[in-house]
Amino acid sequence: MTTASAAPAASVPTASVPAAAAQAAAVCPTGWGSLTKSVTETSYKPLTNVRTGRHDCFDRMVLDVPGAGSKPIGYRVGYVDTLYQDGSGNPVAVRGGAVIEVRAAAPSYDPATGKATYPARAGQRLPGVDVTGYRTFRDTRFAGSFEGDTQIGLGVRARLPFRVLRLPDKLVIDVAHSWGKKS
What we know:
mainly beta
């Protein structure tokens, strides 16, 4: 039987192990790009909540659409120079170095009754969402819900790569902290 012996302590300096691990953890390749992403097929279930979270390599926005299940949630997500509210055409001010327009085929109201399912107000911050201290997110604004689509402005610090994921009952937007280099 062969027995492995421990390497001498001098061969691996203790201080370099945590530093190397931290450097490896800070590399966040994305390959996501920053061009508009969209899918047209949808279930048109109502939006009930929007929440955000911070991760090592990206900030995340989640739109909750209960009842969509495995059916698709249509979307169009992309950078815009100015966010214009559907219907009125009025500009919606969004803080940040760049603005992502999130358009989800999920109304913020029940189509059968017209009753609000998400209590947001046009031009205002998203209810219950605070992006203070986030590395990438700077602001969130509700632009409105018009003809079955909900429109949200997401202010970010700069034009950065993002991805959109459709999960059961959720639409997820991740915006990277950097272009795949050490963050």
